[in-house]
Design goal:
With about 160 residues, the chain is mainly alpha-helical. About 60% of the residues lie in helices and about 5% in strands. It has helices at about 1-5, 20-40, 50-60, 65-75, 75-90, 110-130, 135-160; strands at about 65, 95, 105-110.
Length: about 160
């Protein structure tokens, strides 16, 4: 697995580690595990980590504008644009100018991307199972709420001064 060769898996953490240490280790291990699963499921030739947000937004509703994708994923516009470009090179999406608003670009899944949807959904379910293993349903909900709060805390600190 070529990804493992490039990145070492973070060592097991201790509950006494600082939150920033734990988040860093979670991110590193999650990314390596996701890449391994994409490779094992034969999806790595089409999909890269980071494309999931956009893929699943388009699985839910196709033919969205870049603005819609940004709003639905919560990603920065530059991240959405960059990911859309990578997905277009992979043959997963097509971009077409909106007929009514020539400034807007509509993003649609290709037949290839739609054919990968069942495998992507199965992988997402598998990832959820692995990530929530050993947690009760209530604990998993609390963990999601806690991580959502961490994201909100960071977002509030990262907001540009002129966004208020």
């Amino acid at each position: 697995m070529r990804h493992k060769e490039r990145h070492l898996i973070a060592t097991p953490a201790r509950a006494t580690d600082d939150l920033w240490v734990l988040i860093g280790r979670v991110y590193l291990n999650y990314t390596v595990f996701l890449q391994e699963q994409l490779e094992a499921d034969g999806l790595a030739e089409h999909i890269r980590p980071g494309m999931g947000h956009l893929l699943f937004a388009l699985f839910a509703e196709d033919n969205l504008t870049l603005r819609d994708l940004t709003a639905r994923t919560g990603l920065a516009p530059s991240s959405v644009t960059e990911t859309v470009q990578r997905m277009e090179r992979q043959g997963l999406i097509s971009r077409v100018r909106d007929a009514a608003d020539k400034r807007a670009v509509r993003i649609s899944l290709t037949r290839k991307a739609r054919s990968l949807e069942p495998r992507c959904r199965a992988l997402a379910s598998q990832m959820r199972d692995v990530l929530e293993q050993g947690f009760t349903a209530a604990e998993a909900r609390r963990l999601r709420a806690g991580l959502s709060r961490v994201i909100k805390n960071l977002h509030e600190r990262l907001k540009p001064a002129d966004s208020d």
